[in-house]
Each structure stands twice: as C-alpha cells, then as structure tokens.
Design goal:
This protein has 350 residues and is of the alpha/beta class. It has 2 domains: 259 residues, 3-Layer(aba) Sandwich (Rossmann fold), CATH 3.40.50.300; 59 residues, Histone, subunit A, CATH 1.10.20. It is 45% helix and 11% strand. It is built from 13 helices and 8 strands. The strands form 2 sheets. It has a 6-stranded parallel beta sheet with strand order 4-3-5-2-6-7, sandwiched between helices. A two-stranded antiparallel ribbon has the order 1-8. Strand 3, helix 2 and strand 4 form a beta-alpha-beta unit. Helix 6 crosses helix 8. The longest helix is centred in the C-terminal third of the chain and has 24 residues.
C-alpha cells in the first residue's frame, strides 16, 4: 500500500494556535495486530489508549480476549480494561458513557485518545450515537421466546433477515439475546433499527475522528494467524481460565461475557458436550466467521483508511498518514494543506 499524502505544514503548538486534536479509532478484524500497533504508536505519540473490546472489559477474561499482559498495561495503560465482573453485563451505552469521559479527559490534557479494538457496535455507539429504542416489552419478549422454542432459532434469525436486513447483517445468528432484541424493536416500533438512530455521536457533534482499519490481504495468512493465536492461547492456559470462571460464576454461561468466541466453546467442552478436537475446530470456525463479519461491517463504514497488516512498512505508513492528518510527536502539531489521504481502491480478499 502506498501513501500519497502531501507534505504537511508544521506549526508549533501554542495556546493560541493549537488546533482541536482528533480522536483516533484503530480497528480491524480479529488477529490483525491492532493492540501491537496501538502500543507502537503510543511509544512515539502523546496518546492515551482506550480499549474497545467487549471481552477485555471483564476481569479475569485475559487469555481468550488477547488482553495485554499486566506488565504492558502498567507501561501503557488501557482505559476500559477490567471494569466489570463476568456476571455484570457491560452494554454499548455503558461503553459510550465511559469512553466519552476518557476522551474528554485526554483532550483536556492535550493528549490524543486512541481507541483500539474490534467490537464494532461499541465504535458505532460512540461515533454514530445510540438509537432511540422502545423499552422492552416483557409480554412480547415471552411470545418471541416461545416462538423460538417452537420453531427454532434459525427460523427467528430468518425472520429478522426479512424484517430488518441491515440489523441481521450485524448480529451473529447464534446471539439469541441480540436477535430477540432486534425483533422486539422492529415489532414495537415498526421501524428498522437504523431508522431509530439519533444524531448524538461524536461524528454528529463535529469532533474530528480518524478511522484506521487493519486487514490481512492474504486470507490464507489470516486463517494461519487465527489458528496460531488459538494454539498459543491454549498453551497459555485458556481452558483453565474458562474453568476458573465457570467455577466462580456457575450461572454465567448465557451472559454476554461467556458468549464471547472461545469462551462458549470451551464451556461446552468442560460440560462434556464436545470433544477437545471439536472444541478447537469450533473456536477456529467461530473466529473466522467473526473476522468475516467484522470485515463486512468495516467495508460499509464510511471514511475508513485501510492498512495491510502484512505490509512491512505498516508502522511507517500509519505514522505518515497521521502526520498528514494533523497528528505529530509531542511538542508540535502538523496541519495538512490537503484532505487526509484516503486510498482510492484496495482489493481485500473475500
């Protein structure tokens, strides 16, 4: 990937001239090296890191969420890591509230908030705002659950695909809670979820946002990375981690935390529902599907600047783009004379 941005004009950062600092969003599909790149950037720029990961918010979910080691977190603190127990769900609304507080704190200190992770509905809640949704209806929910028990969850997902195609593309067919909630919203409001969205996100408020998306240009290489990462997690004690959580929170199997990829499959293995080999295969399959959904979502996200993880000049390219967009090392701010570089066309293997 080549970067064709213009040479920036360098202006010393003073109280009078200091521009509004941007919010950087670093995302991408799973196993693309987001955390490593974020830490590399934090070594060179005045950055505060904020995790955007629906698993890393939970204490004791370390190995399976690829949470940075405690020694690394001491050197490079990540906001919104280890903020909840497994049995205490953390919602997109919770994330938005907490992330906005951390972002404001960073900007007030003339530091750059960098949000890093792959939980895309968290990013959406922050940038685009949360929809104005109807309150839950216990009677309707009971009716939908009864229908699901009678007709099966696959039928319920097909129903959602028909009623709200956009929402169905963003929801895992196996995520029963989100499938039911999406159906409930549609039936109560008569609208698709997108039509209920309110303009209360960062983008609508004019806060400058830079969206960086990592991808792996070779699909076979991505699959190898997924497999190798899982092998490393298992060798590091992933099964023991889940077993410990299972013993500590025996009723947590259907919580959002334990429905995370890897955790639900290992729980099934611990309950002797599948063999070890089947568990490994199930995790690999689920992770590949997650990566595909993430990539599909990001393809439809406007303003993303794509960077290939396999490019040996990845860090150089990202730093070059950030420099052209008004981000520089502490002590000065660079203002580009042109719009930020946006790749004209990037071929991404499907």
């Amino acid at each position: 990937m080549s970067l064709e941005h213009s040479a920036p004009v360098v202006i010393p950062a003073t109280r009078a001239t200091a521009p509004t600092l941007p919010v950087i969003c670093l995302t991408g599909s799973t196993a693309t090296g987001k955390t490593d790149l974020a830490i590399t950037l934090a070594r060179q720029l005045p950055i505060d890191l904020i995790s955007v990961d629906s698993g890393q918010v939970y204490c004791e979910m370390n190995i399976g969420t690829a949470k940075p080691e405690s020694s690394m977190l001491q050197k490079f603190p990540h906001g919104l890591v280890d903020v909840r127990e497994v049995d205490n769900p953390y919602s997109a609304a919770d994330f938005r509230r907490d992330a906005e507080e951390l972002i404001q704190r960073s900007l007030s200190n003339r530091r750059i908030p960098l949000l890093v992770g792959g939980t895309l509905f968290y990013f959406s809640a922050l940038l685009d705002g949360l929809p104005d949704l109807p309150e839950a209806d216990p009677r309707l929910r009971a009716t939908l659950e009864e229908e699901a028990n009678t007709k099966g969850w696959a039928t319920m997902y097909r129903k959602l695909q028909k009623l709200d195609p956009s929402a169905s593309r963003r929801i895992d067919p196996n995520d029963r809670q989100r499938v039911l909630r999406a159906l409930e919203i549609n039936l109560l409001s008569g609208k698709m979820i997108e039509a209920t969205e309110s303009a209360n996100g960062l983008m609508a408020r004019g806060i400058p946002v830079l969206k960086l998306a990592l991808f792996v240009s070779d699909r076979a290489a991505l699959h190898r990375r997924i497999s190798e990462r899982l092998d490393q997690m298992l060798q590091s004690g992933f099964v023991a981690e889940v077993n410990g959580l299972k013993e500590q929170f025996p009723g947590a199997r259907q919580t959002p935390a334990m429905r995370s990829v890897g955790y639900q499959q290992i729980w099934s293995y611990l309950d002797q529902e599948v063999s070890y080999r089947e568990m490994v295969e199930d995790i690999c399959t689920a992770t590949r599907r997650l990566a595909k959904r993430q990539l599909t979502w990001l393809r439809n996200e406007p303003g993303c600047v794509w960077f290939d993880t396999l490019n040996p000049r990845l860090t150089e390219g990202v730093l070059g783009f950030l420099a052209s967009s008004g981000v520089a090392a502490a002590g000065r701010v660079e203002i580009s004379t042109r719009e930020p570089y946006i790749p004209r066309a990037i071929e991404i293997n499907r």
